[in-house]
Amino acid sequence: MAGEVIYYSKALIPTLRETPAEAELISHKLMLRAGMIRKLAAGIYNYLPLGYRVLNKLCRIIREEMNRAGAQELLLAALNPAELWRESGRWELYGPELMRLEDRHNRQLCLGPTHEEVITDLVRREVRSYRQLPLNLYQIQTKFRDEIRPRFGLIRGREFLMKDGYSFDRDDASVEETYKLMYQAYRRIFERCGLRFSVVEADTGAIGGSFSHEFMVLANSGEEQIVSCPSCGYAANLERTESLSPDSISYQQVEEGVSDNLLNLEKVSTPNVKTVEEVCGFMDSQPQELVKTLIIMADGEPVLALLRGDHEINLNKLQKLLGAKDLELASPETIERVTQAPVGFAGPVSVTGYRLIADLVTKGMRNFIAGANENDAHYRGVNWGRDAEPEQFADLRLSKTGDLCCRCRSALTFSRGIEVGHIFKLGTKYSEALGATYLDDQSKKRALVMGCYGIGVSRTMAAAIEQSYDRYGIIWPVALAPFQVIVLMVDPLDEQVRDIAVHMANSLKAAGLEALLDDRDERPGIKFKDSDLIGVPLRVTVGVRDLKSGVVEIKARKTGQSCKVSPEHALEKVLELLKGLQAE
Ligand SMILES: [Zn+2]
Fold this sequence. Notes:
Elements: E1 4-7, H1 26-33, E2 37-41, E3 44-47, H2 49-68, E4 72-73, E5 79-81, H3 82-88, H4 90-93, E6 99-102, E7 108-111, H5 116-126, E8 135-144, E9 159-169, H6 172-192, E10 197-201, E11 212-218, E12 224-228, E13 235-237, E14 243-244, H7 246-257, E15 266-269, H8 276-283, E16 291-298, E17 301-308, H9 315-322, E18 327-329, H10 332-339, E19 355-359, E20 368-371, E21 377-382, E22 392-394, E23 404-405, E24 413-427, H11 429-434, E25 437-439, E26 445-447, E27 449-456, H12 457-467, E28 469-470, E29 473-474, E30 485-489, H13 495-510, E31 514-518, H14 524-534, E32 538-542, H15 544-548, E33 552-556, E34 562-565, H16 567-583
Parallel strand pairs: 1-31, 4-8, 17-19, 19-22, 30-31, 30-32
Antiparallel strand pairs: 2-3, 5-7, 6-7, 8-9, 9-27, 10-11, 11-24, 12-13, 12-24, 14-23, 15-21, 16-17, 16-18, 20-21, 24-27, 25-26, 28-29, 32-33, 33-34
Helix pairs in contact: 1-12, 2-6, 2-12
The protein binds zinc ion.
């Protein structure tokens, strides 16, 4: 890589002391404070030189890995004619998030949020034969999405930088090969960025789970909850996680032996006691001894879902089980109609005319507590078979801490993540809609089989910060840092300090590194603060006092560890420390 020295005194790095009130997420706050971005309008940002440097680092890694995997870069038009989007049906389907506009001839256009239509149109015109396949094309481009409420800075903007790629193959077997290549390329991209990430299988409905993966940067502020198994590598979004409750295993064992010892069903007056917590407090019991009843509307029909008191329902699982199109919690009016009681007293006893589905974990429960379908009343001593009979016991619960992996029974890890990449086997959805075909080796016309592969580039920049910062500012991984080294002159007016610092910066440049030379005539405190804020991995501090002892200080941003070496040995030490940081 070509080295570079930037003089801070001439650079546009407008750092802020105060945190801007508009920012909610730490990455947003820090990018504003570090002078990396500035807001132009809601959800629209300008990238300043420091931010743009980081974006370019990301783009470079992405390009290298995409090219290495055999993909070719192109650049598609951002402004798209409506006719093309009508061909795919998405002009109507996409909704208000599609940024639409009209030109002077009243022709309708949109600013592309994604480019399946445009690329499929291009390929249907240019590709004729199986000999031209497979073809894998990508671009890095500004995309538009008219978010109703843009927030979180670059995490959810209305204008953002995306890498979107599309592959065209002759058949399923071939697209699966391409998909694997992309999967590996994506892993390498995020590994090279120095990010901690998880790859989860995404739900693709009809397409099949193993051909859609989401790449998540792990960060506590992430919107997505991820469950992963450290032993076998299983990972999924919380809503899609299948897991075992340690209790369900022990209950299954208990079930074999327990048949008697059933208490009588007893109605207890529970005035105004509604929530699981209130019922447990009132009856001096634990949530594990209670079965709660949720009324769910499945395609307009009420269904009673029964779960242990301390468990939450996973509506995805219920939806899949019922094969329902539309699922929602019932309104209070419906609950009253179904249970003949106000909200808070629903239960499975004596319910007729509605479907009852109970979570697997409740199967082994005995003598439990449940609502009595009567105002201010609960039952104690409820037992399956005698008092209530669900049509089915099934896995309905949301996975929770302590759950075990379905595949290998190891304890699962729960974390949060930010989705930065998504790879997807599209099949022939767009090629059929737009008539993108090729002639196979029998001269038979066939639809191209597609895959699509996205990376939110600007979002990845924000996610990297969400993953790595402290109270002083950003801590960049070396691969993404705007500069690898900052050379800080404590006394910029001192000739010797200046000579040594400039010489240091130039030797870093000669070694192929990017250095920011802080030559500003500012108080040292301000310069140290800015250096920490913008998060450059290594700082070389050159000051009069140290030079009297014949040394400069080298400090690592991440660990705060510092050492003093002679100016002659500084370069060698910097290279060694950078190597260590990159190997982490
Ligand atoms: Zn496992």
